[in-house]
Amino acid sequence: MTTSKRSITDFFTVSKKQKIKSADSNEPSSETDATEKSTTTTDKVVMKSRYVDTEGKDKGNVNVDDIQIDVEYKEEFDVETFKKTLTPEELELLELELTTIDPTWLKILHTELRKPYFLQLKKFLKQEFKSQTIFPPREDIYSWTRLTPLPNVKVLILGQDPYHNINQAHGLAFSVKDISAAKFPPSLRNIYKGLAIDYPEFEIPKSANLTKWANEGVLLLNTSLTVRAHNANSHAGKGWEVFTKAVVKSLMEYSQREKGIVVVSWGMPAQKLIANLGRVDWDKNLWLKSVHPSPLSARRGFFEAGHFKSINKWLRENWSKQDVIDWCLVEGNEIKSIKEDRRSQLGLNDVS
Question: Is the pTM of this model over 0.90?
């Protein structure tokens, strides 16, 4: 068998019996509220790959929505083994991904990296970096994977395009690396205002850096991961949207087997992405949606949405009190209810 047809079994331990199941034709369909019920159980993982049966026969490409393969992940993904399946050109094009994507994410995304659209995207970016100033810097394109490893994700907040001015974009949606050298984003200002409505004790910070939220388990993911300097949406339609949809789909498949997560989509583009994911168990996960926090739309329902309190209410009930998000960004600022939740979980007080 040539390396190009290497099966998923080379990277993962397969359970005793692999199965292919047709999608349940009786499952409810969805429109914009995406209320599909998933039949995925804790020992089933939907894979995006060629299917090779137990006798080694290649079944060809399979529709990810139509099959389930019983697999049991190894504890670690073997990057070196995966590299051996790549051509010299692929190794060169994917060097950034192989060296800067957190291993927990690389394990579930490595097959996506070899798809023709992604390799074409990497060829485009190679030329862009030669002739243009691109944001964020290369080393920050996948910072979201390192700041919020896959097992740590409790909340997904979707953004759109990275900021396109210097010292702004650093790989996290809505976040600014160094606000002293950049204008404060109006959408983030409204996010802070929404937080202060939910939690009056929240002190609106002068900083726009949301790294602390990422460390808390909030995945801040843009649907496009790069942009030309001073040219908004310049990398839209080049392939990033396909990749980030695969990221979200893989995340949801992972969450189905774990505790579930909160998905937050502000604005129609983010809502359409989630609605088009396919089967998601919304009994196990929570989907919060509203208008975008942009000044153009925020007053049409964003401030009244109460998403930040809703996130913590759901985490308290479905994860634990210790897992609620501490939204405070100013040193010394505390929200009493969040502090008490965390102390209670640790047995430091008697708050119920």
Answer: no
